[in-house]
């Protein structure tokens, strides 16, 4: 069964089309890369999947998450899908983190919600053990210190790991990652990508990975959908799209990535 089915998705702002007629499908365990230059509609597509479009924007078409409709549904119908079926990691972990709450208290929210959903009671000790396990899962070295810290007291990479831990704590089957490493320095980027790759494999998650960074997408996605000016211009297996792009827009994106790579020269 398809975990995510998007058919004819359009997003409008006061009559202006920002996303037009997008189709996507994701089966359980599949990894899809969504690429395209800035402003091509990638983030709005992802937000529409979870019914999280900003005020003033409206979606039309069909989005089915685990067979259940998203578009046109009231928020209370979507709450059970968010986290439990699909969870999201954003470019800037500060989007997911409350600056005025200790990281441990924030992580407790999805852990408690999942326990309630599964009919498990959680003592203080159970919660502490679950918090530590959630941080160990994202390879955080000193879980006790991080749990007691405020978001501004940890590094950007650690914040993103906590945001990933919170997304996974809900027990989703689909992880949507929107430029999750763009705000990080290059070595932290590589660590977070390796972490995501391992987690998605170990947990058997489906992944919708959004990025304008083609080499990063090539490293993690099985299939790629290319967007330009709100529309899908090309899609296919990653190797095929990156090595033999059919559309001039994709050819241009790849040529630009190659030029950048050549200009940077061989890595250290
Ligand atoms: N709240 C909004 N109101 C009006 N227009 C918006 C809003 N959010 C985004 N847009 C516009 O919609 C288009 C698509 O934006 P979107 O954020 O989906 O692009 P993107 O491909 O994710 O780009 P980036 O990589 O820069 O995030 C852009 O032209 C953007 O300016």
TrEMBL record:
CDD domains associated with the record: ABC_NikE_OppD_transporters (cd03257)
The keyword Membrane appears for this protein: yes
PROSITE patterns associated with the record: ABC_TRANSPORTER_1, ABC_TRANSPORTER_2
GO molecular function, one term: ATP binding
Main location: membrane
Compartments reported by the entry: Cell inner membrane
Family membership: Belongs to the ABC transporter superfamily.
Name listed for the protein in its UniProt record: ABC transporter ATP-binding protein
Species of the source: Tabrizicola soli
């Amino acid at each position: 069964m398809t975990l995510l089915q998007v058919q004819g998705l359009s997003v409008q702002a006061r009559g202006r089309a920002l996303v037009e007629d997008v189709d996507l499908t994701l089966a359980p365990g599949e990894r899809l890369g969504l690429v395209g230059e800035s402003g091509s509609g990638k983030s709005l597509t992802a937000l529409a999947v979870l019914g999280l479009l900003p005020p003033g924007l409206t979606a039309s078409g069909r989005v089915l998450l685990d067979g259940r409709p998203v578009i046109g549904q009231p928020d209370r119908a979507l709450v059970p899908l968010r986290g439990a079926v699909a969870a999201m990691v954003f470019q800037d972990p500060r989007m997911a983190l409350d600056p005025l709450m200790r990281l441990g208290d924030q992580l407790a929210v999805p852990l408690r919600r999942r326990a309630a959903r599964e009919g498990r009671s959680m003592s203080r000790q159970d919660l502490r053990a679950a918090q530590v396990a959630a941080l160990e899962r994202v390879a955080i070295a000193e879980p006790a210190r991080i749990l007691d810290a405020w978001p501004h007291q940890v590094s950007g990479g650690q914040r993103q790991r906590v945001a990933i831990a919170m997304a996974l704590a809900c027990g989703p089957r689909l992880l949507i990652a929107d430029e999750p490493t763009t705000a990080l320095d290059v070595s932290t980027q590589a660590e977070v990508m390796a972490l995501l790759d391992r987690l998605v494999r170990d947990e058997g998650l489906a992944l919708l990975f959004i990025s304008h960074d083609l080499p990063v997408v090539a490293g993690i996605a099985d299939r790629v959908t290319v967007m330009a000016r709100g529309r899908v211009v090309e899609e296919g297996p990653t190797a095929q799209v990156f090595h033999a792009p059919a559309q001039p827009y994709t050819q241009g994106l790849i040529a630009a990535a190659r030029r950048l790579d050549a200009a940077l020269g061989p890595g250290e």
